[in-house]
User: Which sequence fits this backbone?
């Protein structure tokens, strides 16, 4: 794509993928294709200590903290507008599953949960969205960022 071709780029767990050898170089390319003042919407998996068989199944190479994601964004020419953890509602269950259960090859990739369970998940995430509008969450399974290209 040409320089400045986009007003917004969305990156969902891309920088954490094992095929991205240099996340800073990848963000540099995102910055190049963004118009000045353009926005990056980015999600990353959180906490390296949560790395598990699930990450192997979805080809995750690295997990991030809010601090490491923010440092990477600033280092590559972005101004951070919002940087928060999210999915704190399910954090305890996910952390337990990843660290204590499941065994080799365990992953929830492709699992279809019953509608009532999905409803509970949605309700919990709706509460989180309302909270995040006012203040960032101190922990979660993922890191969410909204950043603006500087210059």
Assistant:
């Amino acid at each position: 794509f040409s320089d400045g071709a986009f007003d917004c780029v969305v990156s969902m767990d891309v920088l954490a993928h094992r095929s991205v050898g240099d996340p800073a170089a990848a963000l540099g390319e995102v910055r190049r294709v963004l118009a000045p003042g353009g926005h990056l919407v980015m999600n990353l998996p959180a906490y390296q200590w949560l790395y598990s068989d699930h990450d192997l199944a979805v080809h995750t190479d690295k997990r991030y903290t809010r601090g490491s994601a923010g440092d990477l964004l600033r280092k590559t020419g972005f101004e951070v507008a919002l940087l928060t953890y999210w999915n704190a509602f399910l954090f305890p269950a996910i952390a337990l599953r990843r660290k204590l259960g499941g065994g080799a090859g365990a992953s929830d990739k492709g699992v279809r949960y019953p509608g009532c369970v999905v409803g509970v998940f949605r309700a919990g995430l709706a509460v989180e969205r309302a909270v995040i509008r006012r203040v960032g969450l101190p922990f979660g399974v993922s890191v969410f960022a909204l950043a603006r290209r500087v210059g």
